[in-house]
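writing this on my phone so excuse typos. first protein, seq and then structure
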Amino acid sequence: MAVGIIIGVAFGSIIALLVNDVLMPPIGLLLGGMDFSALSWDLTGTGAATINYGTFINTVLDLIIVAFVMFMIVRSFSRFQRNNEEGAPEPTTKECPFCRSEIAIAVTRCPHCTSQLESS
């Protein structure tokens, strides 16, 4: 579990770097040269107390990207699981109802207890 947490933190750092330094500059350029990390609302007028909603926008984009990547990982894992279940071979043996020995599916008499079996 500790390894998963460490990998998750590293993955989060990479995504934050991707959003802040790779995705947001082109998006800001498309929106007229806007720098999202510098967006804030000044509560006092002097800059002493600000609400930095640009950083919040970057963090929300981080979350959306991480959620999308996790969705894609879970989806591909689910497909992989489903493909493995579909490819399971047909059983070639069954259990004798009288002696509980493992026997071939096609037999009509158990080779262990010699009981007559029903055809199935």
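second protein below, same order as before
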Amino acid sequence: MRINLIAALMLLSGLPLNSAHADARNASPSSSDMESRLVGSLLSVTNNRLDLALNEVDSLLKINPNFKLAQLVRGDLLLARAKPISNFGNVPNAENRMEDFRDEARVRLLRVQEQPPISQVPKFLWKLDAQQRHAIVVDTSKATLYLYENVDGEPRYVANYYISSGKKGAEKSVEGDQRTPLGVYYVQNNLPKSKLTDFYGSGAYPLNYPNEWDRKQGRNGHGIWLHGTPSDTYSRPPRASNGCVVLSNEDLDRLGKVLQVGVTPVIITNQMDWSNEQDQAERAELLEAIEKWRADWASLNTDAYLTHYARDFSTNGADFSAWSQQKKQVNAGKAWVKVNLSNFSIFTYPNESNLVVVNFDQDYSSSNLSDRMKKRQYWIKRDNRWQIVYEGAA
């Protein structure tokens, strides 16, 4: 008995019927493994091997009985024994959640087909400092979280995981808009399961939204976390959260083993872009601009030093005018200045043209003051020139 379940799923995703294939049956069941097994079951349907397809789904549900999309497919397969079906979600009482299931089916099929180019580097990760053992890039458009490890300052692909994000999409701007923010963030805390309700699953990792750039742009809100799913739910639809990034509990536990509070960067974008030669040239130009800024500061040439700051620069409530006056007064009282910079991390900002976040350790000493701090700057390229638009303690 032929059914069109697999065709319905493939059409939902825009995939040709022979495009998805995977066999991860001997692997540890991460979200990628689970969806590969699901697609393997659906491919058995295309070969009219319904019993095999049902056995494969049953095996999948033994691993995780709360995988609701797999339960829906199982219901369709059981129904197919009694009558032909030609649509996805023919099981009773599925109508009220069909859009969610269709979205999850589409995303999971695309994830199986469109595995990331593991030899390429995301354009967002220009440089990792030695303390950042891993970095995360979330692509909300593909419902995917990518994990990279730090190899001598350069990112190397480790894994990717299915995620759910904001119900209303990305680009969060105000409290309660149910959107996921786009930007460069950091893990701020580790909240264990014992301190949370079951809604957050096996744990949660709050991010520092709103960051300095968000506040500069007037964005507000709070409580953007990486977290898990309720105990009776394996995964949620691609757009189901109030703005958080949600993983299966198993995947969150895997990720939690490498997350560093206050250190691990989490870049959230709505389109994954990859580094190229032009991107690398831009990074080299920025590093030259940073060194020139440092040298001009150390030279006590205040006028040259201030040319590195944009006219819309701000920090801690002070605009460029107030900042420049304060710097002129401070430098007038110095006989000499030394500035050393180390432990750089550099990340390009999603959805912002030519905006880069730079973090480094700053070792400052002068004739009357010494100070060491972790500094964060936002540099923007305008009229072919890099300038600082924000500066403060990281």
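The CA atoms of residues 75 and 144 lie 27 Å apart. thats all i got for now
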